[in-house]
Amino acid sequence: MFTVFAGKSYYTAVMCRVDSTDSARLRMLDRTNGTTIDESAATTQRAWTELMFQWTAPTGCLRAGARFLSATDAADVSYWDDYQVWADDGSL
What we know:
single chain; mainly beta; four-stranded antiparallel beta sheet; three-stranded antiparallel beta sheet; about 0% helix; elongated
């Protein structure tokens, strides 16, 4: 979890790969209001793939956080590395 400023744009990126027929999804959460901000980054690739998207902190959002999900079911296996968050100006 980290501090954000409502209305400010951020980027989130992480490296991910999955086993065989599995899938994974990166989800950004508004921890202040308990809602999902974005979950558009997903993969079914067995090779390391960068999941990345730009998002804007919603009105009233003071804290955000990421959730790394094995997307299809509880048996899916996913691997994660090099999680990053940054703003347009290079800050967090």
